[in-house]
Automatic annotation (TrEMBL):
Pfam families, per database record: NHL, Thioredoxin_8
Entries under SUPFAM superfamilies matching the protein: NHL repeat (SSF101898), Thioredoxin-like (SSF52833)
Protein name per the record: Redoxin domain-containing protein
Domain Thioredoxin: 2-152
Gene3D superfamilies: Glutaredoxin, TolB, C-terminal domain
Transmembrane domains' residue ranges: none
Keyword Zinc-finger included in the entry's annotation: no
InterPro entries hit by this protein: 6-blade_b-propeller_TolB-like, NHL2_NHL_rpt_dom, NHL_repeat, Thioredoxin-like_fold, Thioredoxin-like_sf, Thioredoxin_domain
CDD domains attached to this UniProt entry: NHL-2_like
Length: 623
């Protein structure tokens, strides 16, 4: 185990440079404008589920310290679509970002602060010096401690200036729907929409426009009960309960209540909402174990994004975008089980549990399994179930975390861009909401070919066959509407550009020492009272490349051996997935009931094996 409580030398913060600002009333913001404030830079991109988690983690800190702290979102895009200023403006409103946002499409400020991962947090003190950098999510506790220290220190020194910051909230447009996510057709023909931006469910008439009723107060929160009392937080996925189970279960629709990390049940007769699964706390990769039980209300979820009833599994399959897994919820047995995925992010096929996913966000079930929109790998995946909870995963379209575009043709060559929805069509083909391409794509499993059905859509995120199978209903999220497309027309071929996101690659020797350096929060120390206080887990994105050093252990240091570059030309990279956690408690022995905290972090590091390369890789873990 390695700890390093020393602080780095004081470094002056770099200026905030980009294309423009949002949430400032049209004004530019400089570091000089923020002098006297504690500034937290949040480097994010709106495709990234970990970045969305951090937005939610920051809400309480932001509200509690609004007079002393200014959070600045620095949007540094991964996908081409995210560099569109209109798309960014929509995302800022969609996710309720209540602080200034710097548009940094050329990654100028990202590079100035040497950010290497989404998300990254940088803390700047009131005198303009960088005092901490933290990668990943789960730093709320450490941030809160650090902010309190800085408030005390700079208030005493007279360098803290209280008062309003530069945030100016935008004026939201009055629309029936606001950033809708998915929709289902109800037994009577009406449409129920996950109205994510309004934090509610909205029922529309069959025309997709006429408002029938709303379920939920429309305010972000978590509450069960009647439709005028229930609360959601950015609900996304919806699934009808099979007709034969509705009376027994007492609810008709299952809702993926994404930011609340819950599954909710809705009774259509009166709109009553109840919680079916989840504790309301996020399951963190590397965090406390969820245990081995299957009781749904005792298990933590992580951003469930979609849900679909699988006849083969006789359960609702849940796309758990937050930790890159699939789960199965059996409402009759009252059990929730991990179905597929390792919680490592990537594109690895094979048996269900060892497979890797990347923000699974859309599901469509059929008699043999499920189709899956795997957003961050821009992929269409297939889950073939050979039993209720056994089977295999394969990739129909998609090449990896950093390859994307709009290109039709054979599935092995076709490219998507962050798809969020999928739908099985009556003719046996599969429709995809190709969200960041603004398109609906069609995959023909028999021919293995992708074509384009429609373009020019505003972030389509959900699809639904309606009108007796003659039309496809598209949830156009960024246009706040539902759109009908006729089915039966031939798709057309689109040969657009191919893109590859270049993350900085870390060169390593074939055998190197991996060291995680743990820095406990101020006033805390490692807690070994109940056994080892640390854990390290290592995996690689390609089978067979990690020759030694894989798996879990209690030491934060490990020797890792990787296979030589398969291409022998120095171009091949592999993503090394590292998860570390460390438990720490109050260091003062006089404290009878010490406050304790579990620090956890996961990294996805592109590495290239180079003979004579560095023999050590050091990663920081903050308490």
């Amino acid at each position: 185990m390695t700890t390093n409580p020393t602080r780095a030398p004081r470094v002056r913060a770099s200026e905030l440079t980009g294309r423009g600002w949002l949430n400032t009333g049209g004004k530019d913001v400089t570091l000089a404008d923020l002098r006297g404030k504690i500034v937290i830079l949040d480097f994010w991109t709106f495709c990234c589920i970990n970045c969305l988690h951090v937005l939610d983690e920051l809400r309480e800190l932001e509200e509690r310290h609004r007079d002393e702290v200014v959070i600045v979102g620095v949007h540094s895009p991964k996908f081409v679509h995210e560099a569109d200023p209109d798309a960014l403006a929509a995302a800022v409103q969609r996710y309720g970002v209540a602080h200034p946002v710097l548009d940094d499409p050329q990654l100028v400020t990202w590079s100035a602060y040497t950010a290497r991962a989404w998300p990254t947090l940088v803390v700047i003190d009131p005198e303009g010096y960088v005092v901490a950098t933290m990668a990943g999510e789960g730093h709320a506790t450490n941030l809160a401690i650090l902010v309190e220290e800085l408030v005390t220190q700079h208030e005493a020194a007279g360098t803290l200036h209280r008062g309003d910051g530069p945030y100016v909230p935008p004026e939201p447009a009055a629309t029936t729907l606001r950033f809708p996510a998915k929709a289902v057709e109800l037994p009577g023909g009406n449409l129920l929409v996950a109205d994510a931006g309004h934090h509610r469910l909205t029922e529309l008439a069959a025309d997709g426009e006429t408002l029938v009723r709303t379920i939920g107060t429309g305010e972000r929160g978590r509450a069960d009960g009647a439709p005028d009392a229930a609360r959601f937080s950015e609900p996304n996925g919806l699934a009808l309960v099979p007709a034969e189970l509705r009376a027994t279960l007492g609810y008709d629709v299952v809702v993926a209540d994404t930011v609340n990390h819950l599954l909710r049940g809705v009774r259509l007769a009166d709109g009553h909402v109840t919680t079916l699964a989840g504790t309301g706390e996020q399951y963190m990769v590397g965090g406390p174990d969820n245990g081995t039980g299957t009781a749904p209300l005792a298990l933590r979820l992580s951003s469930p994004w979609d849900v679909a009833w699988s006849p083969t599994a006789a359960a609702f399959v849940v796309a758990m975008a937050g930790n890159h897994t699939l789960w199965a919820f059996d409402p009759v047995e009252g059990a929730l089980r991990h179905l597929a995925g390792t919680m490592h992010e990537g594109l690895v096929d094979g048996e269900l549990r060892p497979a890797w996913f990347a923000q699974p966000s859309g599901l469509a079930a059929d008699d043999g399994g499920l189709w899956l929109a795997d957003a961050e790998t821009s992929a269409l995946r297939r889950v073939d179930l050979t039993g209720r909870f056994d089977g295999t995963v394969s990739t129909a379209v998609g090449q990896g975390l950093f390859e994307f575009g709009h290109r039709d043709g054979p599935g092995s060559e076709a490219l998507l861009q962050h798809p969020l929805g999928v739908c099985a069509l009556p003719d046996g083909t599969v429709a995809l909401a190709d969200t960041y391409n603004g398109a609906v794509r069609v995959y023909d499993p028999a021919a293995g070919v992708v074509s384009t059905l429609a373009t020019g859509l505003a972030e389509p995120s959900g699809l639904l066959v309606v009108d007796g199978g003659t039309h496809l209903l598209v949830v156009e999220s960024a246009a706040h509407r539902l759109t009908r497309l006729p089915l039966g027309q031939a798709g057309r071929r689109h040969d657009g550009a191919a893109h590859r996101t270049r993350r900085p690659v870390t060169e390593v020797a074939p055998t190197f020492a991996l060291r995680v350096v743990f820095t406990p929060a101020s006033g805390q120390k490692l807690d070994d009272r109940f056994g080892p206080s640390t854990q390290l887990d290592v995996a690689a994105s390609r089978p067979g490349v990690l020759l030694d050093g894989a798996g879990s252990g209690t030491e934060l240091e490990r020797v890792v051996t990787l296979a030589a570059d398969p291409a022998q030309d120095g171009t091949e990279t592999v993503v090394l997935s590292v998860t570390a956690k460390a438990a720490s408690c109050d260091a003062d022995p006089a404290v009878e009931f010490p406050a304790c905290h579990l620090a956890s972090q996961d990294w996805g590091i592109p590495v290239r094996v180079v003979e004579g390369g560095p023999t050590e890789l050091v990663l920081p873990l903050h308490g």
